[in-house]
């Protein structure tokens, strides 16, 4: 059994947009950049090696954004993996700018999104991006204008599918009136379940839900917490238990735990073999 086949066997698959089938455990490429998601990584060769290792272990969905670095994450992905192996899906995002390490400012003007997409295509060395996601809602720009720009890019053949990020249920519904939305990327983890209603909508309607900050278990991971106790009982780490919980939360879930460490990546990937019982799921969610 190949690593790709084994991962798919362990976690199952999800089909994005009707034609992109990936294993239901991806990799978030935010932390391969410098400290604070700013600048180059301290060890460029290690970042390249990690990205290659991720794919060698069977992961075929990598999530990034033009704001990671900024521009660094996309550049590293292309350097490490281009020409891309068959079946690898690279998702990126546009709509946040980084004027300084501390700032993540929305800019979803159509002109900016068009330029951001073109720049991502160049950095990733792609003719078309499989999944391009609006990274945020910009209060200064009508959503119909931002989504409209992505629809135009789709018609031009520059992006295959459109996703949205950091949206509530109302904003998702509005976006879906403007375009075929295939995925949602929101903050979600065992501690922060603000977007349960969005996940339920994705599950019902066949959209992928890509949780960012999926391991933000906080105090729940303490030795005396429910998550810590369960992990200790199952001889797993709290991170592994948190990922296992996400995978069971919904078939629409596509976790993308990220790291700059190869050892930590392997530890996270091992969560694919941790199958929680119904009683354990209920105890964690209670």
Unreliable segments (pLDDT under 50, ≥5 consecutive)? none
How confident is the prediction overall: mean pLDDT?
94
Q: So, CATH architecture? A: Alpha-Beta Barrel
Could you give the distance between the termini?
37 Å
Count of alpha/pi helices: 11
CATH class term: Alpha Beta
Radius of gyration: 18 Å
CATH topology, what is it called?
TIM Barrel
Task: Summarize the amount of helix as a percent range.
Answer: 40-55%
Tell me about this structure.
The chain is α/β, with parallel strands linked by helices. It has a single domain (3-216, 251-258), classed as NADP-dependent oxidoreductase domain (TIM Barrel, Alpha-Beta Barrel), CATH 3.20.20.100. Helices cover 41% and strands 15% of the residues. It has helices at 3-11, 44-56, 72-81, 110-124, 143-155, 169-178, 196-205, 226-233, 238-249, 262-269, 278-285; strands at 13-16, 20-23, 27-28, 61-63, 89-94, 96-97, 105-106, 129-134, 159-165, 181-185, 208-209. The strands form 3 sheets. It has a 7-stranded parallel beta sheet with strand order 3-4-5-8-9-10-11, covered by helices on one side. The longest helix is centred in the middle third of the chain and has 15 residues, at 110-124.
Give structural attributes.
286 residues, 11 strands, two-stranded antiparallel sheet, alpha/beta, TIM Barrel
Quick overview of this protein structure:
By secondary structure, the chain is α/β, with parallel strands linked by helices. The protein contains 11 helices and 11 strands. Strands 3-4-5-8-9-10-11 form a 7-stranded parallel beta sheet, covered by helices on one side. A two-stranded antiparallel sheet has the order 1-2. The chain has a two-stranded antiparallel sheet with strand order 6-7.
């Amino acid at each position: 059994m190949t690593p790709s086949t084994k991962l798919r066997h362990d976690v199952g698959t999800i089909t994005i947009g009707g034609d992109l089938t990936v294993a239901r455990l991806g990799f978030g490429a935010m932390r391969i950049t410098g400290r604070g998601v700013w600048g180059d990584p301290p060890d460029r060769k290690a970042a390249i090696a990690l990205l290659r290792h991720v794919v060698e272990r069977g992961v075929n969905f990598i999530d990034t954004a033009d704001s990671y670095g900024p521009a660094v994450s996309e550049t590293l992905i292309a350097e490490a993996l281009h020409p891309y192996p068959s079946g690898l899906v690279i998702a990126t995002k546009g709509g946040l700018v980084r004027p300084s390490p501390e700032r993540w400012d929305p800019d979803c003007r159509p002109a900016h999104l068009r330029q951001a997409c073109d720049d991502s295509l160049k950095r990733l060395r792609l003719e078309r991006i499989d999944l391009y996601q609006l990274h945020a809602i910009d209060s200064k720009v009508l959503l119909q204008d931002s989504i409209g720009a992505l629809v135009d890019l789709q018609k031009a053949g520059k992006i295959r599918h459109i996703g949205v990020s950091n949206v509530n249920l109302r904003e998702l519904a509005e976006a879906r009136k403007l375009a075929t939305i295939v995925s949602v990327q929101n903050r979600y983890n065992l501690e922060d379940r603000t977007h349960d209603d969005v996940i339920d909508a994705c599950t019902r309607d066949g959209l992928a839900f890509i949780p960012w900050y999926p391991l933000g278990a906080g105090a729940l991971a303490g030795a005396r917490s429910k998550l810590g106790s369960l992990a200790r009982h199952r001889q797993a780490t709290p991170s592994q238990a948190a990922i296992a919980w996400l995978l069971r939360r919904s078939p629409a879930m596509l976790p993308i735990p990220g790291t700059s460490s190869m050892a930590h990546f392997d530890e996270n990937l091992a969560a694919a073999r941790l199958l929680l019982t119904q009683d354990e799921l209920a105890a964690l969610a209670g």
